[in-house]
Amino acid sequence: MNDANIEVYWRPGCPDCMYLRRGLSKLGIETLERNIWADPSAREYVRKVASGNETVPTVAIGDTNLINPTVEDVIEVIRQLIPGLLIKGSDSTPDNDGRRAISQWIVIAILVALSFYVEKLGFTSYGWGVDVVSVLFWISFRTFRSRKRIKNHASS
After folding, report:
1. How far is it, in rounded angstroms, from Cα 88 to Cα 28?
2. Angle between helices 97-120 and 124-155 (to 10 degrees)
3. What contacts 134, CB < 8 A, 6 or more positions away?
4. Which parts of the chain span the membrane according to its record (predicted)?
C-alpha cells in the first residue's frame, strides 16, 4: 500500500479513469488502484460513497472521497490533506493541453476528409452522418476546453 493512502477506484475501458491514473503517475503520485469489476469490495465501496452508483474514477484520500475528479481536483485535495507529499515543482498537472488540442483538430480534419470521400463515392446520406459526428466532436471538444478555462479562472 502507498504511504499517503490514496486509492483510485477504476474500471477497464473508462477514459476518465485512464486520464486520471496516467496524470497522477506522471506526477509521481503513488496510488493503490482498485478495479471495481474485479474487486467486489471496491465496487461496494464506490456504491457507498457515490449514492449507489458505480461512478469511476473515484478517489479516496484518507476520509475524503472524490467522485469523478480531474487530476487538478486530486492535487488540490492532496495539497490540503497531505502537503508534504507533492515535491516542489511537481505540484502542477502535466501540460497536455497543446497536444490534446492538436489531437482534437486532427480527429475533426480526418472526419471532414472522410465525409468528402464518402460523398464523392456517391453515399451522400453517409457523408451527412459523418458531418454530424464531426460537429458533435467539435461541440464536445469546445465544451471540455471551456469548462477547463472556467475552472482554471475560478481557481486563480
Report:
1. 12
2. 170
3. 108, 111, 112, 115
4. 101-118, 124-141
* Residue 61 CA, distance from chain mean position: 18
Q: How far apart, in whole angstroms, are the C-alpha atoms of residue 25 and residue 83? A: 18
Which pTM was predicted?
Answer: 0.56
- Residue 14, helix vs strand vs coil: coil
Kindly state the cell numbers that stand for 123: 453515399
The set of cell numbers assigned to 86 is: 507533492
Three-state secondary-structure class, residue 31: coil
pLDDT single digits (tens) 19-71: 999 989 888 888 999 999 999 999 999 999 999 999 999 999 989 999 999 99
